[in-house]
Batch of 4 targets.
Target 1
Amino acid sequence: MELKALLEKRFAAKSFDGKKIDEAKITQLKELIRLTPSSFNIQPWKIKVVTDQKIKDQLMAASWGQPKVGNCSHVFVFCADTNVIGKIDELIAMLVKNGAPKASLKGYEDMMKGALSPRSPEALREWAQKQVYIALETGLLGATSLGFDSCPMEGFDPAAYSKILKLPANILPTVVMPVGYTTEKATPKVRFATKDVFF
């Protein structure tokens, strides 16, 4: 399916029928998300995928009772990894492992750390969370391309999610994407006109 067709077909599903998505398709979706671009290629995210119904029910309660969290097939919890400098070190180590001479990466490493190290913890958190939304978009369109539905969600309690999922302090739940097979029929797409978007 072409990108325009995916964008036209995708919509925010508010309810799901509870049917499980085949794990092979979930594996494909994970791979699409893994390929998402990011600033400096740091990929400052971790994504928790939840299928256990008891945990989904707890997450639903922490999402102001939104049923889609409980009746979806899988809940993708997109988290920002605020250990940004550590992610740079991981990236450099991975590039070396893939054959890049470490000496040739010094300028790249210095540039990334020079751009990000001076920032406050709050600024680094905000930067990492912005990056997470790029991965979310891949997930939304990826789900549509694989034949199932999704919904982007900010309506949840991040602190409660962290507690339920037992996440380390540097992994911050940022946005949630339940996926499954919707019980709804898509309505016509409504978007601002090109003249109102571009200037």
Note: The longest helix spans residues 121-145.
Target 2
Amino acid sequence: MVEPLLCMTGIDKAFGSTHALIDVDLEVHAGEVLGLLGENGAGKSTLVKILAGVHGPDSGEMRLDGLPYRPNSPNDARRSGIAVIHQEPSLAPHLTVAENIVLGREDLRAGFFLRDQREMVRACLRRLHRQDIDPDQRVSGLGAAARQIVEVVRALAFDARVLVMDEPTSALGKQDVVQLFELVRRLRAENVGIIYISHFLEEVQQVADRYLVLRDGAAVGHGDAKDATIEDWIEQMSGRRIEDVYPDRSREPVGDVVLSVRELAGAHLPHRVEFDLRRGEIFGIAGLCGSGRTEFLRCLFGLDPVRRGEVKIGVTTDNGAAPRRRLQQGVGMLVEDRQVEGLALDRTLVENLSLSRPMARFGWLSWRAANTEAQGWIDRLGIRTTGPRQVVGDLSGGNQQKVAIARLLHHDVDILCLDEPTRGVDVGSKAEIYRLMVDLVSQGKSILIVSSYLPELLGVCHRIAVMRRGELSSARPTAEWDEQSLLASAVGGAS
């Protein structure tokens, strides 16, 4: 048998009384894609951090190319050929593509790049057939897919032999995902070993050769990807079989129109939006990245300026309100970028919930009441945390998303605008969020949801409209859509 490129054996890691990893084995061969699966908090991130030199294992051993491997730092790991593309962007937006790619191994003379470094960057881009990316362009001007390519190129520039891709498609549109999969196959053909982490289990089925499932810090399943089903993986990840991820939404929305939008246009996007949202309705907005979906929600909530149009909430017309006023009117928003705008990562969970709606008793702030309220949301949403006083930045991405949702629900708004609500969330937690959405609309609340994940829209929405080049199509009942017709409408084809 061919010796694995990377072998991790008997890996244990504890943080105080919490055992993050328990006797975990992992192997990756050259030219192989290993799907690493598990719910938020299962131990995936800790295992990757040990591989990348961020943490050292409490016990166990690692071998790379048959030789002992124990990195003392992330730089040590990179020099050994281990590269990690994290879920949250790690590029410096104010630097150029070339500067980002060589960051950490620059060879400058009088403050300028050497010619061989610039040629190395161009060679890496050619290797991935992405000569369309200009090495001298600032990263801030690139789209999400191009930024992902730059992350990969940076890994290859460090001669990566093992590449970890953590939720690489969470910010990509469908066509960008297709291009990324082609890139993965190209790297596999070049004998790069790839660890692919994703909560989109259909993706893992498409790209993985083998899989490893973690649950509560332990390995609970492994094998050839072609021999496993998504249902098998869900059962292994959650410890229970989820028969139906999407809850029954057969109850049709009832009541009056609670939100009416006419001829709405933003400073840049969107160009024209018209629709009505009824009480008890889940209204979905599909569309490609850059189509204006997110910009529309931001204009509606008052985060971005409105150029023209009318927004009517109940019987009140208020076109250019600020977020504070929208909250007072019963409208809340879950933003797409939780780390930049959605949460204060250096603050505790209870502080995040209380920042915009403090808990008070007799006119005084009450931390006891705030802690009780926060614990209630922890229990209701299944947030994996040590308690209300844990710093949010120390939570996994999926649990951070749950905190952002809890913060929105804490306001008890009537209209919820959700931008990519299950981004970076495991399948078990997705099912919980979907059930929560259905419970909320059954109580008379209304939901606007923007999502790149088409099965999600088809699974939870009563009606769906498609945003294309800044204009929103007429809404149709979900039963009249499927993935193909949604995509065709998004790209401008027949639907």
Note: The domain at 6-238 is CATH 3.40.50.300 (Rossmann fold).
Target 3
Amino acid sequence: MHPAAPNINGFTEMNALVPPPHMSFNLTRWFAVLSFVTITVISVALALIVSHFLTREILDRDAILTAQFIHALADSEGQHANLGASLSVGEMLDDRFDPVKAGISREKLADVREEFLDHINNLPDVLLANVFSTERRIVWSSNPSLIGRKVGRNDELDESLQSRVVVAKGHTDPSHEREEQVFLGEPEEFFIENYIPLYSSKGEVATVIEVYKEPKSLIQSIRRGHILIWCCTVVGGFLSYLALFGIVRRAAALIASQQQRIVESETLVVIGEMSSAVAHSIRNPLASIRSSAELGIEGDGESVKKNLRDIISQVDRIGRWIRDLLVFSRPLAAEMEPVTLERVLRESVSSFGTQIESAGIRVDSSAIAPNLPPAHGNQSLFAQVFNSVISNAIEAMPNGGTLRVATEPGADPSQVVVLVADTGAGMSPRQLEQVFKPFYTTKRNGLGLGLALVKRIMERFGGAIRITSREKEGTEVRLIFKLAR
């Protein structure tokens, strides 16, 4: 029984850890919908509660002021008529009141009633004023047709009679259905109904004054208050939504990045275990084959020597593959140090002098800025980055071309960009999408780890790599380095 071969083509086990795109949970989209609905519902509920509270408070305050004014009128009329402590204007308004028993004249009673009710009738913004006895009968009204009528169910009137409190109610519908609501003038859209109890000399409710008003200035204040509440609610809800959405979007991006790194780390663990096993198994036979080939070269026969040289070349190529595989599978644990990019870049270009000359490539390095600030990273790893990128550029121009190496200021003052451009065959959009994937290569003798390792090194030190390319026009690679502090 042979041991199972490792799966190096698709990494099937590792791909199973990542859910398919159509099954993944989109945190940003769900939060955008749910937070919008939640914030909208809460904002509308708060606006309605605050609007109702504001309206209620304004109506109650207006009712209290109206009651204080009417009580002050009653007290003033009582003092003016010298009624004393044994009588009150409230009980004198009831048509069942007997002036003879109370010890006053009918003329005085009529004068007190007429003067007090005249003040009530001339209150500002009044649509209708009624005076109720304790039997729920209208004993006086600014609309004479209602006098003597006994009303049916009226919860506010009953509350005022029984609880001895001022009752206020606002009506947003100008229509009115109660039999006592026969206004002298129709309200436009909003009117207030106040019930104000007047007391007898014994402190009991003697009569209740019902006042219907349409205070336009008060209505305007309520309307402005509602507009302000709704505007603040909308703006506050929108800003809260934007703030929360921004936080969650940032968190979702971090989670996705962390998830990708976890998947990559797990992939590297599999690759590391596989590459260690493969390297151990292959290196010893390769060493024996190479040694035998070197000994065979010393013999006679040109054809044999040629074949042996091919064997040595292929063995060396397999050895480089194994080395690259081991480097890629290991964590990047290099010491941080300031790196002089100009020197490392020029040394990398010089190391390819023979290949550049044999391929007939012209090198343009005039745009490398001198005295660049040191970059944050590791010199040997950055040299590996430059070597890989420059090697790809040279291989893309087998029949000659121009290799341009330059430095540019970064989008951020803390960054510097190294540009490596060639005039080679370029890449298609499909190839650009796959260019950083491990083991993806268009080279016949390549392993597909060069750019993937470059990307890892750049991100390890806070940098990035950007590639733009067009078929038959060439490729531009921008290496973004973070400057050392």
Note: The radius of gyration is 47 Å.
Target 4
Amino acid sequence: MRSRCPSRLLPLCTVILIWASGCASAPVPTEAPRAPEISAEAATRAEQLLELGRTVEPDLTGWLVAGAERLDLFLYGLPDRVKSKASLERKIQTVMLSEGVQAEEVIIEDILRYAVLAVDDPPGTYNIVVADILERAENRGHVIRKVKNYWPAGDAYSGINCVLETTEGLLWELQFHTIGSLAATEEGHSLYEEFRLPTTPLG
């Protein structure tokens, strides 16, 4: 079973940012934006959610891998399926500060996240795959909480993003991509990461 899409199927373009000559003199921030200080409440909440995620993950991953094999699909990014503790703590703390809520009130939808890569050949296969996997998830007791279709949008991101809830009450994220939509997403993400660097000129 190929759990990650082989590189030969992902003709991702190398993103090169070329700045105008005037950008060389643009002011550069002296330091990166400071991450929020993690409170004990945020750290405790993160560990509780991760503990539940670790309990659910083996069965969920096994089911998705078996389903991908049955449908001749790929699961992209499996090594990163569990959100890191540092990232989770930071997200919880940020929401606490921005929304003025307690740690236990913060809702995290992507402690576990998976991406299904489907080849839409013949046309319509992609839609069949999405319907099949979501129906089987419901048959296993999962509740579909959100389905966002980003295909009609005019931005760089295309795909279908879903949030489901396990019988244990854990929210998890499931994305559906084609080779083309994943390539566009990866390219856009590279640009975003470059933009976040404190050394990237603003002009």
Note: The helical segments are 40-71, 85-99, 125-139, 179-196.
